[in-house]
Amino acid sequence: MSRIASLVVTLVAATFALPALAVEIGGDGLHKQEWFTITFRDMAEDIEQARSEGKRLAITFEQRGCIYCRDMHEKLLSDPEVRDYIRENFMMVQYNMFGDEEVTDLDGSILTEKTAARKWGYVFTPTIVFLPEVAPEGGTAAQAAVATMPGAFGKWTFLNMFKWVNEKGYESGEHFQHYHARIINELRAEGRLGEGEN
């Protein structure tokens, strides 16, 4: 092999060996994705905006210094397969679990991000909340949610939750755990993942 070819092989190998790039951190201390949507955090308006774009609304509660949030951003939301699916099908809005930005709940009450987290009963970060296609009249966002994912999971559990919601698995009667197991078995049969992956 020539010296130039050897150098090219070495550079390519070094490129693939690099760790994932760090995700930008905003002034609020939260990790950021450039494709997240910034809104006025009016739940009914956000659900309608997502619907008008042919998407579903998902909100993510995070906090400064959360290592699981960092992992979600660096390992999951930066994975092209995961990122592209979510971007195409969901409007993601980020909430700071201890933030003071104003939030309007579906019942019309005015809250802050932190009082919304308390009112809705969310205590883990990250927590991703999936809202219905059409905003119900009254009630809270937590009552309207079709699914909630508390915590960070492996790639396939994470992605499959988004797919299950997008495919309205909550209406079909197929519990998420059964859906996820079915998809995992299909992926294993295709040779796309090993025994330990989920």
Low-pLDDT stretches: 4-19
| C-alpha-based Rg, rounded | 19 Å
SS elements, strand count:
6
SSE class:
alpha+beta
Architecture (CATH level 2) name of the domain at 20-152: 3-Layer(aba) Sandwich
Determine the N-to-C terminus distance: 40 Å
Shape: globular
Q: What is the mean predicted local confidence, pLDDT?
A: 90
Instruction: Please give the share of residues in helix.
Output: 40-55%
Number of alpha- plus pi-helical segments: 9
Classify the beta-strand content into a percent band.
Answer: 5-15%
CATH superfamily of the domain at 20-152: Glutaredoxin
Strand arrangement in the largest pleated sheet? 2-1-5-6
Main β sheet profile: 4 strands, mixed
The CATH topology label of the domain at 20-152 is Glutaredoxin
CATH C-level class of the domain at 20-152 is: Alpha Beta
String of helices and strands: HHEHHEEEHEHEHHH
Organism: Aquibium carbonis
Keywords: Signal
Pfam families: Thioredoxin_2 (PF13098)
Domain Thioredoxin-like fold: 50-133
What does this structure look like?
The protein is of the alpha+beta class. It has a domain at 20-152: Glutaredoxin. Helices cover 44% and strands 14% of the residues. A hairpin with a 5-residue loop joins strand 3 and strand 4 (110-112). Helix 4 (80-89) runs parallel beside helix 7. It is globular, with a radius of gyration of 19 Å. Mean pLDDT is 90; it is low at 4-19. Keywords: Signal.
List keywords for this structure.
alpha+beta; Thioredoxin-like_sf; 14% strand; single chain; Thioredoxin; four-stranded mixed β-sheet; signal; 198 residues; Thioredoxin-like_fold
